[in-house]
């Protein structure tokens, strides 16, 4: 901070002419005493040294300094415990202030200004811009930012996650917007770029390596704790927060990205180029465009691919939502290939289903044809259970159903009628009646019913009584109240005689 000339003159006058002390000058002029000492030091005037008051921590200063020299990041709380065990009885708050003054400070490091060749380098990073509420889901709003190091041209694209698929899509759209690719792309140590790092040994994400091989650029992570090496993308994200996103209104993600695209091609390109104030960033980019690597002719295959397990219901769970699949693939492991707009489900190389992607949470995205097929399957399963029951009780029913199908009869109706006859007459009688109907060449339940009735009449049996078991349980189990017998005691002989006469 620059000290005003009039304040400096007043401090010097009060110190030399009026012989005020440093503390008195500071309190009367409402400045810090370090400001007064600084003015006097610049003028070459000695200041009085204020003697330090004795403190309880003084006997422990050598131990504290030795410990901090060996362990510079040791916390004040741990140091307080160590000194307290050695006899210190001061307060923790005062001890914390003392440690703040005694802790060794790292020496300031000077950095060279990094200069890059035309078309040589780009820098990439994610920026977090809060959250969006989509239905019941709270999605993070992430900004993919790529900056060309020479021209400072910015590419900005917002996503609802920071997954690998979005990371790769950001690269592809950035190269398309620049109509070229830089030869080297710098990253920090995010998992999308570097899976593992042990000193100089680096294991890159294989999907990023595949993209780099496709576009022929070199992925290069910056050194650990060296954020200054990609300072251009860091400053660009701060510039985006202040100049684009602050107080920005948008309808949805598509609207926000449309505004971001217009901003990158407009105000972000019109700003002054730091290397030469006579040029804009857009003009510098036009000079750099010819030096970028040409784009490959074929597109890079995008899509997030994950393995999913189908349970007993015909749905797969992907990104907080359920997507329907054919009911024939339950209890199996399938593959989901998803992009921003579609979710495709595969069994090996065969595509089973395709749905519009939802960013809600807990939603069921269904194909009506799959649900209808499942319902039909349930009806058929019910019919199959009836056929199986008939086959076990009356084996001749299989031949009757086959003949009925040849004549175009509804097998569901025929099966239901035979099951009712089975419940009423029994298995043995039904088997014999079906044999009679087949012998007459009439494969129909009515012929079976007539055969059953004739057999019953020949045996002199009463008609079977149907049991209706669908009555209300509460009515069947209702308690029966006994009638009061006192009314019978009032009936006398006269009453009986009168009734006989009548």
Protein model, in words:
This protein is an alpha+beta fold and 502 residues long. The chain folds into five domains: 38 residues; 43 residues, no CATH class; 169 residues, Ribonuclease H-like superfamily/Ribonuclease H (Nucleotidyltransferase, domain 5, 2-Layer Sandwich), CATH 3.30.420; 63 residues, no CATH class; 86 residues, no CATH class. Helices cover 44% and strands 18% of the residues. The strands form five sheets. The chain has a five-stranded mixed β-sheet, sandwiched between helices. A four-stranded antiparallel β-sheet has the order 10-13-14-15, with no helix packed on it. Strands 11-12-16 form a three-stranded mixed β-sheet, with no helix packed on it. The termini are far apart. 22% of the residues are buried. The C terminus is likely disordered.
Tag the structure with descriptive keywords:
single chain, 502 residues, alpha+beta, Nucleotidyltransferase, domain 5, 5-stranded mixed beta sheet, 4-stranded antiparallel beta sheet
Structural class: alpha+beta
β-strand percent reads 15-25%
How many DSSP H or I helices? 20
Uncertain residue ranges? 498-502
Radius of gyration: 45 Å
CATH superfamily of the largest domain: Ribonuclease H-like superfamily/Ribonuclease H
What is the correct CATH architecture of the largest domain? Answer: 2-Layer Sandwich
CATH topology type of the largest domain: Nucleotidyltransferase, domain 5
Topology:
Elements: H1 5-16, H2 22-29, H3 33-42, H4 61-70, H5 76-85, H6 92-102, E1 121-134, E2 137-148, E3 154-159, H7 164-178, E4 184-187, E5 194-198, E6 201-204, H8 206-215, E7 218-221, H9 231-245, H10 253-265, H11 267-270, E8 272-273, E9 276-280, H12 281-289, E10 304-309, E11 315-318, E12 321-324, E13 333-338, E14 342-347, E15 350-356, E16 364-365, H13 368-393, H14 397-406, H15 411-425, H16 427-439, H17 445-458, H18 473-476, H19 486-489, H20 493-501
Parallel strand pairs: 1-4, 4-7, 12-16
Antiparallel strand pairs: 1-2, 2-3, 5-6, 8-9, 10-13, 11-12, 13-14, 14-15
Helix pairs in contact: 2-3, 13-15, 14-15, 15-16, 15-17, 16-17
């Amino acid at each position: 901070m620059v000290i005003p000339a009039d304040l400096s003159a007043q401090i010097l006058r009060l110190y030399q002419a009026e012989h005020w002390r440093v503390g008195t000058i500071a309190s009367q002029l409402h400045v810090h005493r370090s400001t007064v000492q600084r003015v006097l030091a610049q003028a070459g005037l000695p200041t009085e040294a204020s003697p330090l008051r004795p403190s309880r921590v003084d006997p422990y200063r050598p131990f504290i300094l030795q410990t901090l020299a060996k362990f510079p990041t040791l916390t004040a709380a741990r140091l307080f415990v160590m000194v307290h065990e050695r006899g210190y009885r001061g307060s923790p708050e005062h001890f914390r202030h003392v440690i703040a003054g005694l802790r060794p400070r790292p020496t300031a490091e000077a950095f060279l200004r990094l200069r890059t060749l035309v078309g040589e380098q780009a820098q990439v990073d994610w920026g977090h811009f809060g959250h969006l509420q989509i239905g019941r889901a709270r999605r993070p709003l992430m900004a993919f930012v790529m900056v060309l190091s020479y021209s400072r041209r910015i590419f900005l694209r917002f996503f609802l996650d920071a997954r690998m698929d979005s990371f790769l899509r950001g690269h592809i759209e950035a190269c398309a917007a620049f109509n070229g690719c830089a030869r080297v792309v710098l990253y920090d140590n995010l998992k999308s770029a570097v899976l593992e790092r042990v000193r100089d040994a680096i294991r890159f994400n294989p999907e990023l390596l595949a993209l780099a091989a496709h576009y022929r650029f070199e992925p290069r992570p910056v050194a650990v704790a060296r954020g200054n090496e990609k300072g251009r993308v860091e400053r660009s994200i701060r510039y985006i927060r202040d100049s684009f996103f602050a107080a920005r209104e948008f309808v949805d993600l598509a609207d926000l990205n449309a505004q971001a695209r217009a901003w990158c091609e407009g105000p972000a390109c019109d700003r002054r180029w730091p290397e030469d104030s006579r040029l804009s960033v857009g003009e510098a980019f036009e000079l750099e465009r010819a030096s970028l690597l040409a784009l490959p002719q074929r597109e890079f295959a995008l899509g997030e691919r994950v393995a999913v397990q189908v349970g007993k219901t015909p749905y797969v769970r992907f990104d907080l939502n359920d997507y329907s699949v054919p009911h024939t693939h339950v209890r199996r492991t399938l593959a989901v290939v998803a992009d921003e707009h579609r979710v495709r489900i595969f069994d090996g190389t065969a595509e089973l289903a395709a749905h519009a992607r939802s960013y809600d949470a807990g939603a069921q995205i269904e194909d009506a044809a799959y649900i209808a097929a499942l319902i039909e399957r349930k009806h058929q399963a019910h019919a199959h259970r009836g056929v199986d029951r008939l086959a076990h009780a009356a084996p001749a029913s299989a031949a009757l159903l086959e003949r009925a199908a040849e004549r175009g009869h509804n097998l569901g109706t025929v099966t239901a009628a035979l099951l009712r006859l089975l419940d009423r007459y029994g298995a043995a009688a039904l088997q014999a009646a079906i044999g009679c109907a087949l012998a007459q060449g009439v494969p129909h339940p009515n012929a079976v019913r007539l055969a059953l009735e004739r057999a019953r009449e020949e045996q002199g049996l009463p008609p079977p009584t149907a049991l209706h078991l669908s009555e209300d349980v509460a009515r069947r189990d209702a308690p029966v109240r006994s009638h009061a017998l006192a009314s019978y005691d009032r009936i006398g002989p006269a009453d009986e005689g009168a009734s006989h006469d009548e």
